[in-house]
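Re: Re: token formats

Sure, here are both.
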Amino acid sequence: MTSSVSPFMKNLILSFEQMDDGFTTVHAYNDDGMRLFTEQWISFISFQHESSFYGLHHDEETRFQTLELVELFSQSNIHPYVHVSGRAQEDDVTISTIQQASSLWSSPTLWDQLSIEDESLVLHAEDVSDEAQAMLTSAIQQKLYSAGLTFSDIPTLLPFFKQGGWPLQPQSGNADVNVALRLSEPESFPDDWLLETVVRGKRSSSHWTPPVRKKQSSISDALPDKWKIHAPYVYETQTQILDLMNIEASPESFLSRNLSDLDVRHFLRDDAARLQALGFEVILPAWLKVVKDSKLRVKSNANTTSFKTTAGLNEILTFDWNFSLNGQAISEDQFKQMVEENREYIRAGNEWFRIDSNWMHEIRQLMDQTETENWTVKELLFRELPDALVQGEDSEDEDDPLFQFELNQSLKKYLEQLQDKKELPTTIVSPHLLTELRPYQQEGFDWLVFMREQGFGVCLADDMGLGKTVQLIAYLLHVHRTNKTNKPSFIICPTSVLGNWQKELAHFAPDLDVHVHYGQTRSKEESTAAFLENIKPDVVLTTFGTASQDAESLSEIEWSSVTLDEAQNIKNMHTKQSRAIRKLCGEHHLALTGTPVENRLSELWAIFDFIYKGYLGSFRKFQENYIAPIERDDSENHKQKLRTKIRPFLLRRTKQDPELLLNLPDKQEQREYCPLTTEQAALYESLIQETLFKLETLTGFEKKGLILKMLTKLKQLCNHPALYLKEGFGEAEYMMERSEKLARIVTLAAEIAARGEQCLIFTQYIGMGHLLQHCLSELHDIDPPFLSGSMPKAQRDNLVEAFQEKEFPVFILSLKAGGTGLNLTAANHVLHADRWWNPAVENQATDRAYRIGQTRFVHVHKFVTIGTIEEKIDKLLADKQALSEDLIQSSKWITEMADEDLKELLTLG
């Protein structure tokens, strides 16, 4: 732009800065290089820019969209007494680019030079820089968006644009008449709407339409004499309107068309918005602009003839439907007529209301289902109703929902029992249970029995240490001693806790006949079903691996109940093991897990597919309905829907829940029984035979030394064969396979850490400490420090302080080095990896966590290998609690035992 010598000319020196968000920041300077305040210059470059209110939008802010820059620098907006230039060379280039784009912006041939290629606008013009082309196409897209249009609208709008409809401006109209499109509401229900072309004089407030006799006449013939001269303008304007609408009509005569509610919806959504965006006048009923959304209320009363208890779950329901619009009752026939006619706008009294016709169709479909499908009580309680039926999209009043089921009192109470698990019938605990249930355990037992009687599978997800095992044992005694079923119950668990189940069943319910289906000794000569029919056990125990291997024979048996302990083992639904176990057939399916399954969605689906097949739909549907919106969008609405859906079948209590008043002890000790692997058992037997042979040739003093040396080897072997064989460590998974005890400790520690809790692991052996570090680090990305006797005091003190500050979740300690003098109350779990023959030493170690300052109860896990010297001495000490403290201060008392007693102690059970 060349400088002018006019004394009125004002110079603006501009700088431009492109921002990351697509906006451009502009600053202005005077001839002396001083930066101007926004209000000093903004009005000069926007003095004809109506959309920014002539610069008032930018009284302080100087950020501009591409569209604004192109419009501000167009020929029609340039101030005659303002000259602009760039502050730097790159600013001059920017000004030149904007001016190129602005020149094309208002060119009458613009749309002849544009084409759409690969869903992008491409400009076919010479001497236009790539930057100017990009700016122009960006401005066009922004202009369309600001008018409520999209890029996809361009093909249909091209004829309009080429005829001068670009840039989008209000229609200038004619000096004497104005042409508009008018929509009129029906005179009465169920009449149609009327869409017509109307004409108004510029000085008149009323609109004219041709009389009925001239509706089919040409525009020129239909117009009054005073307006006949404007017939070409009326024809042209109506033709443009019709071209822009998705409607077939002759442009020769005045438009007059009846519309249904559905047509009106499409017109308002598509055509009216587009016409108004392009500057044409569209006249709508005044009430339509403030139309109130649906006031239609639907209530259905569900009843049965004589619902009393669970026996009525399969009774057929009857439904009584009631409808009201804005408080006025509507008959069922009227409602059905509204649905059939796709009514969307309904008059009630003197008011009009918009009804969601899709929602009404869903209600009608639901009515048809209840009439033809014979819903039962069970189906109603657990049927997943569409969201729109449960509450309207804009309905915030929970006391006045758009749709509601009303249940009779007995049905309502039953639903509350299932949802809240309160006021359940109390079940008398079998006298064969050799322990007392705590109040919350009694509630869990009552719930298990109640759900069995209803025919609903369950997931008992109580926190670790709350006694899921004893609740299930009470349930099994009820099933087999009170109900006296002749079918066995089946328990599937990880190999590492198989021994634990044997011991717990024998301890709490010795009256139950338990058969272990595991290992090489399990039935193979005849079918498993025939074998079990012959021995008639109450309970059959097996592992996940064995259940998978023997899936074919086990699936032939109808079990009284099938229980999965550590049910998350079937979380991968595609594995052979998971598929095989989910095919098992039991009268009642139960899942036990201490993990918060509601936060692991794929695991949750697999568990529910086992306890209540089909309830959560196919996995693909579950992914679409829940996993994707929850994991991708963190949708709280979908989380709540899922919680509501699974709530009746899931019982989860945590130790931290103050409302449960669990009344737990300050310290709870629990033995964790683990079997030897085949490798460990062979090495164990070999060592015993070798030692017993040597003992026969040794004197008393030598004999004691050999026994003490053998005890150390046996305890190391019970921990892991690599410690006994003095081997190096291999891959963590391989090391875990060789020792069930190691696998159980590592898994338990990882679960504790995952819950945000902390634990101490005590061991007598340096090698075991390093092996635990190796496995936790490689498999679970946990790097626990190991406090041993060789650690300097300063480092030891720093580790203790860091653990108390919760900087790491797992702390491994040598029993001698860490067993006394430390305050580690941040831990609420203590794991004894190997047993010290002196209970006082173990208790001292436990007291690192269980001491003054501990605010939570401490869960102590003592790991014992089944059938070995560990189990036998543990039982011996428990049986001989009267032994004096000085007698059991060390392992030396074992060396004093008679040969026969020693042989019995060492023999592998």
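Second one below.
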Amino acid sequence: MDFRVLGNVEVSEASGAPVSLPGKRVRALLAVLLLDAGRTVPVSRIADALWEQPPITAVRQVQHCVSLLRKALQGSGTGLLTEASGYRLLTAPEDTVDVIVFEDLVARARRSMPDRPGEAVDLWRSALALWRGNALADVCHAELVHRAAYLDEQRVVATEECLAAQLELGRHREAIAELTSLTSGFPLRERPTELLIRALRACGRRIEALDVYQAFRGRLNEELGLDPGERLNRLHRELLRGDDTGGEVRTAAPVALPAMPAPAELPGDLASFTGRQPVLRELTKHVEDAGGTVAVVHGIAGCGKTTLAVRFAHSVADRFPDGALYVNLRAHGPSPALQPFAALSQLMRSLGVAPGLQPQDTDELAGRFRSTVAGRRLLILLDDAADAEQVLPLLPGTPGCLVLITSRAELPGLAGRTDALSVPLGPFEPWESVSLLRTFVDGGRLGDEATLRRVAGLCSGLPVALRLVGERLRRDRRLTTTVLATELAGPDRLDRLRLPGDPGIRSAFDASYRALPERLRSLWRILAVAPVETVNVHTAARLADWPEPQADAALERLATAHLLEVTDTGVYRFHVLLRMFAIERADVEDPVESREAAARRLLDWYVSRVDAAYQTLSPEFPPIRRPVERSRLFATKPAAMGWLHEESANLVECGRYAERRGLPHCWQLTVGMTNWWVSRGSRPDWVRSLGAVLAMAQRIGDREGQWRVNHGLGLAHYLAGNFVASRTHFRKAISLTQLLGRARDGLWSHSILAELELEHGRYADASHTLHRAIAMLPNNRRLPRLEATLHRNLGYLRLKTGRAAEALEPLRKANVLLSGISADVCRSYVELALGEAHQALGRPVLANRHLRQGLRLLENDHNRRLRGHAHLRLGAFLLEHGDPAEARTHLEVLLEQPELVNAEDVAEARKLLARSADPPG
């Protein structure tokens, strides 16, 4: 399979047949992955390449595009790997990607030029023949514009070099036509004009050469107000003198370096260096594959970027015989950041060029630096970079050097203009943290393994914190890990992460914080004190009271600066220690009123969304807030449940925050999560949460909240099998609705209470509850699920009390109420009851039909308790009226995972199997 980006983005099979790529964004995705083939491309970079302004749903849309691309490349031998931070394309051999072939041919041509210019021309021609138009022509938008411009520039440079080589070989006449076309396409570019003048002069066409010069000079002056450069002016003077010798105007040689040892400026490596083996392997592979280029190691302050970069630089220094240079760019140091001119001057001095011989203009000095290092193999470590603009002037212009950059920011601007490898560096894994602590003190003083792991965990995997803790243990022989763990668990953890005379970890965080503009600092503080574990664009916008696009851009900038982490699901969270620091800053800089106002905005928004989910999942229950906001409902029940699950941890935290402050949001959030608690939550946690909320509602006299929470506690205890507590809370809920003058709002409490009383054989109580509830049903509004549930329970009551014939009428009424609506579980209950009634009346054919329909309605339901009960009822029927073997099959379903099925149903299944003619062995 062949991949092409030097023109339209295309893929073809080995036979030449084109492979269809579905849509422009899929082609753009393939282009991004091909340009970084073999390297992981972060999702953020992919989104920047696919959209001018990535939408809120960018992560999901990128995943969709990846799925489409995988399908298109299926069976091609090209793998597309999903990794933690993005995606990586594993292509077939490199000669199948035209841009890689082009770069290889150009590199070989340049190596051949000094000794074999004829071969060099052939190689350049082969490279240029790969082009089919402008690079990335059909996907060139957004971030890909920079990559396309870079590739197009390489094409022009290769063309110039090829034509210059032809002139070296004396092929002047055949080059003139191509040079004329090139100068027409690039009318303000000096190099093609210079080559054309040289070719014309060599062919004796001096007057035409002078005309070309005058035309170029006129264009340059008219459009830019500039004059031609010295090389072109010198060539012009030679023409005026009548010098038609055709002598070549050669490129200035690199600055000659004085005889001096190769620079060796790398800082010392740490003997205690620990872990990071996957990152070191990735960097090594990058150097081996690319022969030395640019790599950026970026991450949170204190994560060990410089330590890692120094370790790696020492490990590969022998591959760069011309020396190793080091510049601290001081983006986050106490002194001002190093400007590009000062950094360039330092590099030139390290290479032996005295300050007096250096140009005083930054751009000119950058050009001189590139000339000086051309053809040399140097390792350059640029430590603590602020942004791409600080780094770009310091990059060599020719291959052969390795530039290793460390930064607290991701430097996305660098990726668009170079082929830099981006290496995110996160906190240590737990084993790495423990391993680093062991390098500071002997095993006898480290205490037991659990305490050591606890100390490491309290440092949150941050190497700088671990080193500070390790140094404290080494210096103070009286300090134990047990005492240290107690200290670090206290409220002053950041104070403990420092040494005498050392500013500690707080200083590193403060430098990153001060580098932000005030609006981002303010948002960062608000996010830290918010009662949530993670944030997204919606919650950030409510906390800051900003439009969502503005909040989205701010979150991305904070993540790029590694002041927030991006999770696999695309939401943002704080590193534990960074959040502590941000809360400190909020305590100092933000009034309590502004923080509480931000939290209230967040609580209001969460309650509105929870209410929308609640109304979608339980449309017949009274809404949490009035008036009802129908426009905010979720499109589907799975969407509502999915949102509740994604936000469950945040909703619980917000509920606790509201409960501590006596706000009604606490019961509103807890009640709104009822469906999540029922299907996915922990029963004990649910009961504890409801208990705390009920106490708060009683304390402030909130009867609405008390009614809602008592109903929730009744349901929670019912599902937990606590009959007495469940009945008590349902009765309290019913009484509260009567006190509120809204007795009908308690109908669901009546319904579940009746079901509870039926299960425990309290038939008289169940009869009273049911008839009272049915009498309260509204005449002007249909509540089909509620009405059907009440009539189904009335049918069960008559069935349980030996009145099977009388049970049919309410059960059939329930079936009619449920027809035409999506209520498979409710219908299943009714069908099973009808089956039992017909069985009791001696109608096995009808009983069989209803029981099987009851089980069939639960095929797609995840509730094993319900399915188990349906299997039990059908199995019991078949033992008496059907095939005993099939009956045992249904009964044995309950024994496969008995802990997930109702215990009473399991016991009954065991009894039935024991009485069967052929019990299981």
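DSSP finds 43 helices and twelve strands in the chain. The radius of gyration is 37 Å.
- S.
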